[in-house]
Design brief:
Strand content: 15-25%
Order of helices and strands: HEEEHHEHHEHHEHEHEHEEH
Strand order of the largest sheet: 1-2-4-5-6-7-8-9
Distance between the termini: 79 Å
Bound molecules: ligand C2E, magnesium ion
Shape: globular
Largest sheet: 8 strands, mixed, barrel
Structural class: alpha/beta
Length: about 280
Amino acid sequence: HAISTEHSSLIIYSHSLGDAISKELAITEQLRIAINNKELELYFQPQLNIQNNTIVGLETLIRWPTENGFIPPVEFIPLAEKSGLIIPLGEWIAINACKQAKYLIDQGYKDIVVAINISPQQFQHPDFYNMIVGALAFTKVPAHNIELEITEGVIMYNEADTIDLLHKLKAVGLMLSIDDFGTGYSSLSYLKQFPIDKLKIDQSFIFNINTDAADKAIVNTVVDLGKNLGLTLIAEGVEESEHLDILKKMGCQEIQGYYFSRPLPVLQLHEFLQNNQDLKELA
Ligand code: C2E
Ligand code: MG
Ligand code: MG
Ligand code: MG
């Protein structure tokens, strides 16, 4: 009996593992087709400076619409990374984010900064620097209007090469930020070695900042740390006015979250900017 039980559970296990793998392969194949057919779309989430009430930036967020609704990036970005599709997809994202930046700069938002999420696999790719510099040149966007969001994970791969590449990107004039700050487990010493402009405080610390004393203490400490290092702080996942009030008192400069705006498709973004002309930075 023992053997047959083990045997049948083994079969069930291998079936479900096989199912998971073939499902991944199927989604990856659909993604490849969707990329070729240009079915993916960029959304942009506005970022607000809460000290002087101006719209300072936009985060570029990829969307994959299908017949059955949107497939979330947390599901397909890892598959794009695994399969290598993130390289052509990442280039498409960079070029189209730059095109949007160029459009808005020409509309008078000359100081707008458009942020692009960079996967570790992209950052490690030998052509990454040329791809980014190429996208800037092709779209005629000044480098200071583009921000690259990297995670602490990127930094941990190969420290010496990472430092070199970050300095090269900074020398071009690009803005550099650390995404999901506080969730990685790398040493804080990288903050003084790397030419970083901004820390994006992870949303998990923000959601309960008004009710959880520990979260509030962590955010307060990160804000102080960032300020003492001369970095800009932005809080992600700001959903309520209470979150904003606390962050403002702490001296956090910028927020991003549903409270101010959800990520928007281009037409809605332009409407949003039009309706919030008073939040435009004076040129
Ligand atoms: P992320 O870069 O940390 O992006 C922030 C995520 O939080 C986005 O989810 C955004 O829609 C969501 N968000 C913004 N404000 C709020 C809020 O107030 N409350 C809540 N609950 N969520 C909020 P999204 O668009 O689903 O993206 C998830 C992750 O997928 C991103 O996290 C990023 O790691 C990755 N991703 C998205 N677009 C790209 C891309 O173009 N390239 C790469 N490499 N990764 C991307
Ligand atoms: Mg991000
Ligand atoms: Mg984040
Ligand atoms: Mg992230």
